[in-house]
Design brief:
Strand content of chain B: under 5%
Largest sheet of chain A: none
Mean pLDDT of chain B: 87
CATH architecture of the domain at 88-116 and 176-312 in chain A: Orthogonal Bundle
CATH class of chain B: Mainly Alpha
Largest sheet of chain B: none
Largest interface: A-B, 93 and 97 residues
Number of strands of chain B: 0
Radius of gyration of chain A: 24 Å
Order of helices and strands of chain B: HHHHHHHHHHHH
Structural class of chain B: mainly alpha
Low-confidence stretches of chain B: none
Number of domains of chain B: 1
Low-confidence stretches of chain A: 1-28, 310-317
Helix content of chain A: over 70%
Radius of gyration of chain B: 23 Å
Oligomer: heterodimer
Order of helices and strands of chain A: HHHHHHHHHHHHHH
Distance between the termini of chain B: 38 Å
Number of strands of chain A: 0
CATH architecture of chain B: Orthogonal Bundle
CATH topology of the domain at 88-116 and 176-312 in chain A: MetI-like fold
Number of helices of chain B: 12
CATH class of the domain at 88-116 and 176-312 in chain A: Mainly Alpha
Amino acid sequence: MARADISLQGLAWILGSSPRMTAQLDTGEDPTMFQNRAEALALALPAAIFAAAVFLVPVLILLSDGFRTPVGGGWSLSAYTEFFSSPLNQTVFLRTLRLGAIVTVVSAVIGYAAAFAIVSLEPSTKGKITGLVVLPLMISPVARTYAWIVILGRTGIVNQAFQAIGISDAPLRILFSETAIFIGLLQLFLPLMIISLISALENMPRDAIPAARVLGANWFQVFWKVVLPLTREGLVIGGTLVFTGSLTAYITPAILGGSKVLMLETLMYQQVSVSGNFVSASVIAFILIVMSFAANILLKRLATARNRRAPGRSASA
Amino acid sequence: MNARTLFIPLTLFVVIAFLIGPFLIIVAASFSAGETLAFPPQGFSLRWIAKVFTVESFRASFGMSLFLAIGGTAAALIMGIPASYALSRYKLPGAEVIRTVVSAPIIVPGIIVGLALLRYIVVPFGVGISLALFLAHTALVLPYAVRVVSASLDNLRSDIEEAAVLLGSSRLGAFFRVVLPNIRGGILSAFILGFVTSFNQVPVSLFLSGPGVRTLPIDMIAYMEIVFDPSVAALSSLLAFLSIGIVFAAERFLGFSRYV
């Protein structure tokens, strides 16, 4: 339980929802030895200046590129109107959104089933199974994605099986399609959803489900009215991680989508390395960042909206 | 009750097969004796495992990735430990701003960071590719370093340092003799997390890789686009076992998950 809790806090930290992981034990007055501001700044500034110089400033300049007029030094949105007027870009944009949404929803459904199953196990088995779920996170995404070529390729396992059973005569083209990217992304990010939900389920009051059952709720009602509101925080964290992860994945669409089925990141790479179009790359960068933040905010909103309809849940906090 | 007892093992089996199965297939394929990547593997041999060590570009890019992972993480810790100390112990003006700036590289997609570095650091200042990769990987690991070290500092009472100072130790002496030994586990965990993150990183290095200078994962992608033999599978298995081994050892000896 402690393990899952800490990773959840870490995830929350990544999302910026709780800047401090643990409350400081020392609650007394600040000792004089920690009141020297110049000293504190001298300690903190090297890291801050480094991050600003190597990361923040270059990224901000890159993002501002997309708002420049093609000639002269003015500001305009012409790069954005131009970007969205291209049918290819529209397709890629919608595909990225669609895949992100589908992967998130499917991983939530599977995630709940898996998390329920894991939480109901004996403590010792639970640790081992949770370890197996977390294990893929330690393996290089390149290796994890590469495996799907063996499975989904023309002579891969799936096609061998399909032909053996007689579902198809000729090998199906599964690789380099949206389906392949979907499978790859789901496998990549499902562990994040499962560990978020395990932690959320473990923090749920133990008697909430039996109480609802005694009061006559069926399993659907139990899930919808009790479990969902009580685990919404874990769902929001897991959902944001999976959605933003899917939006900004590069390796999976690059290997499983090829050069035909592009997502925003692979499109961005192509724009830069093939056509040298840096303005378009800046537009894509801005869209990716805005979508990531929007997803985070939207999911939080959804969670609080549900919360208002289910006033009983505040007991869990 | 019956449906429930069936539901749990079935769900777990399907989910774990989905998550782990592909990896097992890669491991099996890397022991194949055949010429092309296939499952079930044709025969058994160690030829592809052996081949990994003879491919020149793999050796070069492995060295590069190792250098970036060790050097970048060390650099991130050298800047990150003092910063975490300041954020955790002092009332710092603009602490939230500093915290946000330092942890920002984790939020922005890596490909954007790489492109921004290429255009506004590498090209205008004539920075070499290796140095640019080093800067990028350091920036990438910095948020993890600050987060993990901050967490272990927050769990350490600050009165033991005060006691050391009251008893006549210098401030620096108190830090090195009292604080540092107590957050050793956190620092090592931060190092391992940073190492694995940096080593597996692809998007940040994408635009910063030039001819002859590549990180290992990027080299693997380039190789698999040209050659369809099991050597990438063999290399993937080796790397996976390496990182699982490191994380397992860290969990065993440090209680890694306490910090991460």
